[in-house]
Design goal:
- The protein is of the alpha/beta class.
- It contains 6 helices and 17 strands.
- The chain has an 8-stranded mixed β-sheet with strand order 1-16-17-15-12-9-10-11. Strands 2-3-4-5-6 form a 5-stranded mixed β-sheet, with no helix packed on it.
- A hairpin with a 5-residue loop joins β5 and β6.
- α5 runs parallel beside α6.
- The longest helix has 16 residues.
- It is globular and about 55 Å long.
């Protein structure tokens, strides 16, 4: 599964080269770093005239250099969904447009199962939450950042989904899953996009590669018997889609059947016609009725 988010109208990856990408967010052009872009840049006039350029600092981090005036935040659309975009101090904009392929996947399944319960862990500004809620699911949205959860709620309001059955929770995802196990909660779908690094209860730093299998095992305990899917996204360099597929396959298919697929997700690059790889996804999907073990 190598999927390309090619249905955007308000977003465009214009070009990529020399460690940077040039993007159009509605009518705002941003230039910012991308560590996967290791090929040379082919200069064109658009590279030299963005609205803002995020420049790395030699001492770490970086900042935006604003070249043209524009609002601090604005809205982009993907179908019926609306998202607030705003350049942050960490080069991000509040949205990962490549994830649209996964929103479409979830939407397709959930429209066949109205009222399904979905858990979105490390849920950020709610792209997957809104897609699932818009497809009729009951969603539990969990993120440790109060600011990100509020941003997600703002996106829900902009999308006309303020009244949708969404639980907005500011919580540690691992601790929340442990409590859900004790409560006997069950979900038909689980989505997670864990960070590459985190901190444990005593402040110790952990790496996702060291914690991911245990987290997946715990999440499996809250999947319902009639579960539809279990999706894991990652931007961690040392955790390839194939590794995630192996983990999910060994964990899920022996007892639950279905199948696991994985691959890179990416964005089409207008200037070259190529695809910019942006991350990896592995998905367990339950077998459909009447199709044996094949989803």
């Amino acid at each position: 599964m190598n999927q390309v988010a090619k249905h955007w109208k308000d977003y465009e990856c214009i070009d990529a080269g020399s460690g940077e990408k040039l993007e159009r967010w509605k009518d705002i052009i941003l230039r910012r770093p991308d560590p996967q872009v290791i090929w040379p840049m082919e200069e064109n006039s658009m590279w030299n005239s963005p609205h803002a350029h995020y420049r790395r600092s030699k001492s770490g981090g970086g900042s935006w250099e604003y070249k043209k005036k524009f609002k601090d935040s604005w809205t982009v659309s993907y179908g019926d969904l609306r998202f607030k975009v705003s350049p942050t101090g960490f080069k991000h904009t509040g949205l990962f447009p490549e994830q649209a392929v996964n929103w479409d996947f979830c939407t397709g399944l959930l429209r066949q199962r109205p009222g399904a319960r979905v858990l979105n862990l490390f849920a950020y500004t709610g792209g997957a939450t809104l897609a699932c809620a818009g497809a009729g699911a009951q969603v539990t949205h969990v993120d440790a950042s109060k600011g990100m959860v509020q941003w997600a709620r703002d996106n829900a309001a902009a999308s006309g989904l303020s009244g949708a059955p969404v639980r907005w929770l500011v919580d540690d995802c691992m601790k929340f899953v442990a409590r859900e196990i004790r409560r006997g909660s069950r979900y038909q779908g689980i989505i997670m996009d864990p960070p590459s690094y985190g901190r444990g209860p005593s402040g110790e730093v952990w790496r996702l590669e060291e914690k991911i299998f245990a987290l997946l095992e715990e999440c499996k305990k809250i999947l319902a018997k009639d579960a539809l899917f279990f999706m894991v996204n990652t931007y961690t360099t040392g955790l390839s889609p194939a590794v995630m597929e192996y983990m999910l396959s060994s964990m899920m298919t022996p007892g639950l059947g279905g199948r696991v697929s994985s691959g890179e997700i990416g964005l089409p690059v207008s200037q070259t016609g190529l695809v910019l790889p942006c991350g990896g996804t592995a998905i367990w999907q339950a077998a459909l009725p009447g199709r044996g073990g094949n989803p």
